[in-house]
Amino acid sequence: MRFYFLLPLILIPSLLFAQSSDMEPVTVGFVPNGNQVSMIDLSWGKVIYKLYTGQAPARAVVSPDKKYVWVLNTGSGKTTVIDLTKRGGFAKVEISNMMEPIWPVAFEPAGKSAYGISLKDSALLEIDCTSFEVKSRTRLPAPDGVRGLAITPDRKKLYVIWGNALSTAGLRDYITVFDPSGGKEIGKIPGGKGITALKLSSDGKILLALDAGSSEVLIIDTGNDRVVKRFGVGPGPLYMFSSPDWSKLVVTCGSEIQLYGLDLKKKSSKLIAKAKFDGFGEFGCFDPTGNNLCVVDKNGKRVVVFSPADLSVKSTIPLPGTPANVDLVEMLAMDRNAIARWSSSTRQDAKIVVNQLRNRGLKFKDAEITGTLYESREDTAGTVERKKVTLYFLPPFQSRIDVAGAETVIGKEFVEKVMKDGTSTKRPRRGLWFIPFGMVNVQEATFINRLTAEAGEPGAISIALDIMHEETFAGANFVVLGAVQGDSLSSQFWVNKDSWLPAKVIENDPETGTITETQFLDYRSVPPMTGVGGYWLPMKLDTYINGRLVRTLMLREVSIDQGVDPSLFEF
After folding, report:
1. Which of 205, 428, 482, 544 sits in a 20 to 30 Å window from 142, CA-based?
2. What string of H, E and C letters represents the secondary structure of 363-382?
3. Helix runs in 413-516, H state only
4. HSE on the CB side for 416, CA within 13 Å?
5. First and final CA of the chain: distance in angstroms?
6. DSSP tag of 21
């Protein structure tokens, strides 16, 4: 399956007439976070574009030839390849979805082949980097998963470290050496107490291994596969990465970043600088020039850019979600500019849709609605339970639901208070099901923040307004915000293009992988024939979780502007 994101360029008759600055290289990065991959620009210090690559993207890595970005999507079970080579009247980003999740991945230096471990059956796959077809498949013994790979330039040795690719579970104290052509084990290198990362020099003669258990970096001669030297690093090391010329090595330790000088010929190292990290730093990389190094901060939802001279902070780039890792690549400034312009243009179109909703939406101060909730319980062979429900709304985003004999849920902004059986708890607010009831006298920026969760509220589900398409379904026309054609997994907001009323919202929780779809049905003017078009409310809401209908809410009586007591919404 291939999706094309068309990024309009200003048509240039000839590159001879392009400004020299347009032809200069700039550094951009790809950061999986939330349910999208953010494209960042180091010089501008911001996100310039958002890509949907699949459900819950967890890693992104640039190929050695700088033509592709490989993305592991843990939720959708696919590996995505982003093509960076498309140019012409349009700059295109092409996405090709492979048939299975592959991670980790290692490239032979020429970039013609990639080697990865299938997360389905732990098989070693050799993949052609032009056709993206699997050239060979070899089963490896991987009782606890494969955490890291490295392959020598001559493709005669494949180094494997064991453990969960996305956590520290199942780490081993050795490195296994395989013949990649047949999958035969040809050696084993004893390490320490839990190896978490590998880094192979560009000439393939030196392999570095990070031993988290003993807080050491192992220097291994790949000629005889022996550890020739070790040097200590700070406590709790998590990851390491080298500069392009291999003169420097960075080790991340969560709350600390360490910079070492390397001399591979002498097999020696020297500590250059340490820096406290205000957050949690793990994955990172140098830019292609070696003039900047980046580390993702999972706690602060940002990318921090450091100087490779002394680890001083040069800038920080905020992100919409929790970052997994970052990898950097150079592209022409003219292509970067085109992508940024297209993103801004598409977002402007989304704002028009939001304004249309707001202008044709509701205009009440408060509402009290009674109805019946029908819930289908999977643990009781589909038994349907019927409960009386009262809903209160204090626009724009305060709500209260009283379920007879069950619980009360008060929602305010991005937090809910749940009262049940005499106790109360707070949790991140779940879902955007109340959108049709909350679009009242709200500013455009506030409503967009609600959809995109750009303020970074805990538990918020983000809809990428930079992606939009039109859809025809069951004879009706829709504008879809947050997804490309054919994507039913990412969070998205459907609007009926004829009535400009919300049709449904799909929410993908990247932490649990749960896909919740709420359909807004049976719109009616409430009260009937009031004003021009009345107050349009959906009288039926169907909720599906992972494709199964779990509840139906049927609304009956609606009271508008009767003075709902504000104390009902107190936390």
Report:
1. 205
2. CCCCEEEEEEEEEEEHHHCC
3. 435-438, 444-452
4. 18
5. 48
6. G
pLDDT of the residue at 18 = 45
| Cβ count within 10 A of residue 461 | 25
Bridge-based pairing state of the strands 415-420 and 423-428: antiparallel
Q: Name the average pLDDT for the chain.
A: 82
Rounded to whole angstroms, how far apart are CA atoms 400 and 418? 10
- Using an 8 Å Cβ cutoff, are 442 and 451 in contact? no
Report the phi/psi class of residue 474: left, alpha or beta, with left for phi > 0 and alpha for psi in -120 to 50.
Answer: left
- Give dist(CA 78, CA 59) in Å, integer: 12
Query: What CA–CA distance (Å, rounded) separates 350 from 483?
Result: 12
Q: What are the beta bridge partners of residue 536?
A: 525
Q: Are 522 and 502 in contact (CB under 8 A)?
A: no
- Number of residues that this document lists for the chain: 571
Helix (H) or strand (E) holding 352: helix 333-360
Paired residues of 494 in beta bridges: 480, 504
Locate 21 and state its tokens.
């600055």
Is the pLDDT at 88 greater than 50? The verdict is no
Both tokens of 282, joined, read: 């793990």
Checking if the pLDDT of 294 tops 90, the result is yes
Q: Is 441 left (phi over 0), alpha (psi -120 to 50) or beta?
A: left
> How far apart (Å, rounded) are the C-alpha atoms in residues 555 and 434?
13
Tell whether the torsion through CA atoms of 65, 79, 464 and 511 is positive or negative: negative
Residue the block writes with tokens 């290198």: 189
| pLDDT reported for residue 45 | 95
pLDDT of residue 406: 87
Look-up: residue for tokens 């007879």? Answer: 404
| 3-state class (DSSP) for residue 34 | coil
Give the whole-angstrom CA distance, residue 517 versus residue 542.
8
For residue 409, the cross-strand partners are 401, 418
Q: What is the pTM of this model?
A: 0.68
Sign, CA torsion 484/487/491/493: positive
C-alpha distances (whole Å) from 34 to each of 44, 323, 482 are: 22, 7, 13
* Residue 51 CB-density burial (10 A; 0-12 exposed, 13-18 middle, 19+ buried): buried
Q: What is d(CA 481, CA 493) in angstroms, rounded to the nearest whole number?
A: 5
Residue 8 has pLDDT above 80, yes or no: no
Would you say 198 and 191 are in contact if contact means Cβ atoms under 8 Å apart?
A: no
Question: Around Cβ 74, how many Cβ atoms within 10 Å?
Answer: 21
Task: With beta carbons less than 8 A apart as the criterion, state whether 505 and 490 touch.
Answer: no
**Cα angle 486, 487, 490; round to 5:** 165
CA 153/CA 109 separation, integer angstroms:
6
Q: What does R_g of the chain's alpha carbons equal in angstroms?
A: 27
Using CA atoms, how far apart are residues 215 and 192, in angstroms rounded to an integer?
Answer: 9
Maximum Cα–Cα distance for the chain, whole Å?
A: 85
> What amino acid occupies position 87?
R
How many angstroms separate the CA atoms of 354 and 361, rounded? 10
How many other β-carbons are positioned within 10 Å of the β-carbon of residue 121? 11
- d(Cα 192, Cα 212) in Å, to the nearest integer? 8
- CB count in 10 Å sphere of residue 413: 13
Task: Confirm if 306 and 315 have CB atoms less than 8 A apart.
Answer: no
